[in-house]
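#struct-help
A.M.: can someone run this one for me? Single chain, 427 residues.
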Amino acid sequence: MRTLQLKIALILIGSIVAVVFVATAATALVLNRGEAARMVGPMSRHIAVAREFFDATGNGTRPPPPREPRTEIVAAPPTEGLLPELTAALETALVAEGVDGASQVSQAAGDDQPVAAVQIADGRWMLFDFPQPPTLPPQLLLALGSWLTLVVVGVVGVALVMARRVTRPFLILDEAIASVGPDGVLPHTPEVGSGEARQTAASLNRLSDRVKAAMESRMRLVAAAGHDLRTPMTRMRLRAEFLNEDDRAAWLTDLDELEAIADSAIRIVREEGAGDDAVAVQLDALVRECIEELQEAGLKVESGALAATQVVAGPLALKRALRNLLTNAATHGGGGRVTLSTEGNRAKLVIEDDGPGIPEPLLEQVFEPFFRANPGRTQTVKGAGLGLAIAKEIIERFGGSISIGNRAAGGLEQTVTLRLAGAQLPK
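D.P.: on it. Structure tokens below:
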């Protein structure tokens, strides 16, 4: 977001500064293009007066006025270093003064000043020092520099203020998205600042309220449905007792599966609505405890290298998530192997198995509730298909991540990362 703000500010600054400099350059160009006319105007009047004087006396022996730097009579004008632009301008100005005859402006190599020449009545030529273009006084240059400096500073200030005002709603959106919790609910945004910022914050708060209400309604609905299923299932279990032995066993198996689904649905809703009970947890000890419990239950789970690691999580909830992942590897993968290491400020837990894996197109669905890679195996493997969904909900609640992929040698690899205790949260 700060990058967008900087881009808008740079665009405004560049545009306005470019306009100022273009206007200044255009003004200087216009002034420079009129330089010849400004220079030859006084020169033509000077020549007209001098020629009139010499034509009247006929000899030109009277000394020139003291204010003229140079006026002399020669038989022929200079032949090198002609200046066409100034010559044409001088001829035009002399015609306007009523002076006819040839004229020219030249500057020989090595001379530091041009010379104007005009032919008089007897065929000789009068030479005059041509004035140099006037230079800008230092005061004017200082004033011009100060003007440009003030314009640039003012433009920069206005551009930054406008860029911040324009991008403030986008910044609010960016901050709101970054602060979305694992439950998917937006936090309350303070309704302060400009009109656009307040309107954006108010819209986000309305959206947050609606999402929160929808999430709570969904959790209440699922919990109520799971709870209400218990009564008819109890009645069905009682009625199954009056069936013959073969039918009763089939009915009880189906009822056990329905009860597992109801319990899992209630459990995942409870996990979503659980509070933040994050504390420092000794992860390697928790993993060993889960492995021992599953081995006692007859499940094949092995322990690899387990680095001593402390993470930030809820002990009971994290143990439930790890048990679900290890059980998944042991039941569907024919046994699991667990390793624990650290990478930077994160703990990395890897669970591998040697099962059949999951088809690549279905990998993105593994964390969906009630997902099964092979629905036909539900008859042999008990479960409601909510174990991975519950594990993902718990791990992400504590700032972790979980991913599942197929191993090159066959089977699945479940990877869990959690923030180490004492590690700083990313900004």
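A.M.: thanks! The first helix runs from residue 2 to 33.
D.P.: also worth noting: Residues 188-273 form a domain with the Helix Hairpins fold (CATH 1.10.287.130).
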